[in-house]
Automatic annotation (TrEMBL):
Keywords: Cytoplasm, Protein biosynthesis, Pyridoxal phosphate, Selenium, Transferase
Gene label: selA
Modified residues (N6-(pyridoxal phosphate)lysine): K309
NCBIfam families named among the record's database cross-references: selA (TIGR00474)
Annotated region described as Disordered, given as residue ranges: 1-40
Cofactor: pyridoxal 5'-phosphate
Localization terms from the record: Cytoplasm
Pfam family, one: Se-cys_synth_N
Protein name in UniProt: L-seryl-tRNA(Sec) selenium transferase
Stored InterPro entries: PyrdxlP-dep_Trfase (IPR015424), PyrdxlP-dep_Trfase_major (IPR015421), SelA-like (IPR018319), SelA_trans (IPR004534), SelA_trans_N_dom (IPR025862)
The EC number(s) this enzyme carries: 2.9.1.1
Recorded GO CC terms: cytoplasm
Molecular-function annotations in GO: L-seryl-tRNA(Sec) selenium transferase activity
Amino acid sequence: MTAHRDPTAPEPTTTHGDRAAGAPTTTVAAPNAAGTRRRVPRTDVLLADPAIARRVADLGRDLVKATVTEMQQRCRDGAIAPESVPAAVLDALPPRAATGRPVVNATGVLLHTNLGRAPLSAAARAAVAASCGTGDLELDLRTGRRGVRGAGTLAALRAAVPVAQAALVVNNNAAAVVLAATALAAGREIVLSRGELVQIGDGFRLPDLLASTGARLHEVGTTNWTSAEDYRAAVGPDAGLIVKLHRSNFTISGFTAEAGIGELAGLGVPVLADLGSGLLVPHPLLPDEPDATTALREGADVVCFSADKLLGGPQAGVLLGNAATLDRLRRHPLYRALRADKMTLAALEATLRGPAPPVAAALDADPADRMRRATALAHLLRASGIEAAAERSDGVVGGGSAPGVRLVSGAVRLPTRYGELLRGGDPAVLGRVADDGCLLDVLAVDPADDRLLADAVLAVARCR
Ligand SMILES: *Cc1c(COP(=O)(O)O)cnc(C)c1O
């Protein structure tokens, strides 16, 4: 970039920016600097540039205007040529207003917690957009009076799990556990098995979460063996709640026993089953995952689970159970701090009522189809000179669901260096680096995005 200023001339004085009211501004400028200043594109002209105007719609006028002012100054200083100012403004603006870049999940982990777990269905995305404004969230339009918050979502949950008398939606499953434990057992005992003291992601431990409510944990049984008799012996006058926690991210095998919900239901204390992963009914591919219908049928008073795991919906915690218990939870002051927002409620309702969300579609897809997709992808990439080969891959459900279950999948193996290149691409792609290669597993990739995935690889291969 050439400087437009005569190096022997005094520093040019700028005439833009805040001036002290009434303070006279003297403009002493070298002829060259004055020439540049005349050619600095005007603010109104820059803001009317169609590409810049689009960014105003996206980022707001203040940020764009500040960037325009900054680039005008750099132009005056001779750092950029007048004709380059619009491009410099566009370059300096952030790519989008919101944090969070889209990432193609090619990890082979269907529910990747670091990638935001379940992607929403098109119906759920549309419902979120439609719910953003004002709506009948807590209004009965027939009577004009206050209505039940998220009535449509609660009705959809009860329709999906008819054995549940009532439903409640909170921020996430951890919130559901805290609400139930607080409302039913604060200051009393929670009885739970030593085989169910689970640590979930990022160092959080469910027993610590339970204890944080002010309840005392009464552990029973051993790591591998807990019988109904162990619970019965522990349930005394101080017991407020029995908790059955799903071992959602590990398995215990060998010499093991645990009590079923049916055996705990008759002990005179409410039973909460934390199911973790959100199956509403049994799933043939996931025989060891608990489901809400079965747990309630067996006698759980309340079940809770995450809506963004196997249910394939938004981040939320769902509580289902008998009407009296759910009413206690809804009336508890803590509910007010934990309840779900309108966009979440809309997304959840659309997930339940609409077409199968991507997680369910991926789980139920034919494994041979995944291999075919990987083969087609590898073929396409090889045709562009990229070292790519399809191979069979073992995918997992992930996200604290179905530990030990392998989902037969297909992947494209690329040279290892692609792992980093693809993370920096647009869209970013997260693969799995394994055995001296970068694997792009199609398990969690929407089949409609296969072309997008191929283009992302081709783009980084080109600019390497
Ligand atoms: C995932 C999980 C949780 C936490 O759920 P969030 O929705 O992430 O708060 C709690 N309990 C179990 C058993 C889980 O698997």
